[in-house]
Amino acid sequence: MADTINDIDNSPQVISTAALRRKMLKEFWFYFSENRGAVIGLFVFLLLVIVAVFAPFIAPHSPFEQYRDAVLLPPAWIDGGRGTHLLGTDPVGRDILSRLLYGAQYSLFIGVFVTTLSLSSGVLIGVFAGYYRGWVDTIIMRMMDIILAFPSLLLALVLVAILGPGLTNGMIAIALVLQPHFVRLTRAAVMSEKGRDYVTASRLAGASPLRLMFRTILPNCMAPLIVQGTLSFSNAILDAAALGFLGMGAQPPAPEWGTMLAEAREFILRAWWVVTFPGLAILITVLAINLMGDGLRDALDPKMKRS
User: Fold this and answer.
1) Which of 210, 232, 215, 240 shows the shortest CA–CA distance to 292?
2) How far apart, in Å, do the first and last CA atoms of the chain sit?
3) Cα 281 vs. chain centroid, distance in angstroms?
4) Burial category of 83 from C-beta neighbours within 10 Å (exposed 0-12, middle 13-18, buried 19 and up)
């Protein structure tokens, strides 16, 4: 009997919590969908994810197979085009469309890896700096200021030169370059939340510093970090493409978009398609993610919401 009464007493709380979550999700989508560009960016990004996941089934050719009798063929849909290569072939006869589809896998992996590494390490450092302040904060922030004093691409090049060329080292270098943005943002948010009543109440209740930092304060600082993470995702793709173009990122024959541009730069005047399509892929992907970031800012920032 007592268990039945407890179930009855607890059921409204469960229902209200689920209803509250649905209401929050509905409100988020309302503000996000008001930004038409963000919705378009979301659908383009989802299409990119689908293309990356199903690239082995969608791609008409292997991204590494070379057709020696089809070198620098123009796209099949323009005058003079022939064969089954819809977007033409590159200087060694590889199908450009297939390499672009597989390149989406590289771009998504780079974005996820770099954003996860820079966000997790940046949040960890920023929480300690904002909570403890004092000499800990001073040392951490001066180190971040030194990193921010260098142009991001130049610093990434220096780090890759030290670590050695390659996709993995390039991603680590880009993550280190993007990390200070998360550190500064987290520190500012923690400093703002640290003095609020709910934090003081948790401290008086006996919560440990780690619990205060990561269970009490950090969840209330996530909105700006999510927006910054989205923008860092696009920056990671851009910087990785730049490193690949300079020969310091992904190495041939990897179908990474920046590397494809590097391999085709001496054929710009002879075969416009070998540089146009990888460049458009980078442009569309980065633009879609940035539009999503704008929509997330509108939906998560209370100051951007209109009554």
Assistant:
1) 232
2) 47
3) 16
4) middle
pLDDT the model gives residue 81: 55
* Closest of 68, 125, 113, 77 to residue 97, by C-alpha: 77
Instruction: Note the pLDDT of residue 85.
Output: 81
| CATH class for the domain made up of 34-304 | mainly alpha
Query: CB under 8 Å, gap of 24 or more: what pairs does 192-198 form?
Result: 193/217, 193/220, 193/221, 194/130, 194/131
User: CB–CB of 131/217 below 8 Å?
Assistant: yes
Going 186 to 190 to 193 to 198, the CA torsion angle's sign is positive
What percentage of the chain exceeds 90 in pLDDT? 41
Q: 116 and 202 in contact (C-beta within 8 Å)?
A: no
Total Cβ atoms within 10 A of residue 291: 22
DSSP three-state, residue 89 = strand
Q: Where are the beta strands (DSSP E) in the chain?
A: none
Mapping DSSP to helix (H, G, I), strand (E, B) and coil, where does residue 254 land?
Answer: coil
pTM of structure: 0.85
Q: Which residues contact 134 (CB under 8 A, 6 or more apart)?
A: none
* Whether 30 contacts 305, CB under 8 Å: no
List Cα–Cα distances, 88 to 70, 71, 93, 254, 257, in angstroms.
Answer: 9, 9, 9, 18, 15
CB 247 within 8 A of CB 160: no
Q: Which amino acid is present at 13?
A: Q
